[in-house]
Amino acid sequence: MKIFNILFCFLFVISAILQYNDDDPYLWIPIYLYGAWICYMAIKNRYLPWAYALGVIGYLCFAIYYLIFKHGVLDWFQHHHAGDLVQSMKADKPWIEETREVGGLLILVAVLVIDWLVARKKSAKIPGKV
């Protein structure tokens, strides 16, 4: 698990840095840095169940918002081709950026859920902890 968290801590920090040139860096930099912080804490064997819950709930709510947003993932799924999403790095249509952002949120959710499950498993091994 240590390698898993080192890898994702690094990837989330890089993702936060890349958001600097985004239209809304004030939103995405903290989102990715929160995921990096969670992974950093797991590297140090400090598992924070409340932090996982907060992150998963927040990221899922945000992903659901992007799913039903006017030019979001559902719009792309219903009206456009899958190849349009990855044919270039430039997000020249709103649904391209929204769909990619949902992908990032779902990666964050997956990492937090995995760490949360590991934290529960580790706490179950400690007598007197639930």
UniProtKB/TrEMBL annotation:
This is Transmembrane family 220, helix. Keywords: Membrane, Transmembrane, Transmembrane helix. InterPro entries: TMEM220 (IPR029377). It comes from the Bacteria. The chain crosses the membrane at residues 25-43, 50-68, 102-119.
